Amino acid sequence: MKQVVLVDWIDSAAYSKGWLYEQEGHVEPMHITTVGFLMAENDDYITISAHHAIDNHNGTYGPMAIPRGCITHIQVLSTELQLPLPL
Predict the structure, then answer these.
(1) DSSP state of 24
(2) What's the CA gap between 7 and 46, in Å, rounded?
(3) Per-residue pLDDT tens for 18-27?
(4) Are residues 43 and 66 in contact, defined by beta-carbon separation less than 8 angstroms?
(5) How far apart are the first and last CA of the chain?
(6) Cα 28 from chain centroid?
(7) 63: cis peptide before it, omega within 30°?
């Protein structure tokens, strides 16, 4: 059983179109909300994934590690999610 969590966090940002001149504006970090299965956690970061396989391989697709220093809030959405869900 995996917890489903909602994570609010601050992500770095970059200007990807070349030179950014002062009169054009500035770049700011982005406030992000991510929802997924909590796959792992330690003192430095958590790992969540949008997809979790329930077969014998217990795989995950698209895991993302989010540093704890970037996280502003974690909310557990489900602690009792039994997989697979009934159809």
Answers:
(1) G
(2) 10
(3) 888 888 778 8
(4) no
(5) 18
(6) 19
(7) no
**pLDDT per position in the chain (87 positions), as tens?**
688 999 999 999 988 888 888 887 788 999 999 999 999 999 999 999 988 877 667 778 889 999 999 999 999 998 766 666 666
* pTM exceeds 0.70: yes
How far is residue 86 from each of residues 13, 55, 56, 80, 83, measured CA to CA in Å?
40, 15, 19, 14, 8
Q: Where are the domains of the chain?
A: 4-78
Q: Rounded to 5 degrees, what angle do the CA atoms 1, 53, 37 make?
A: 50
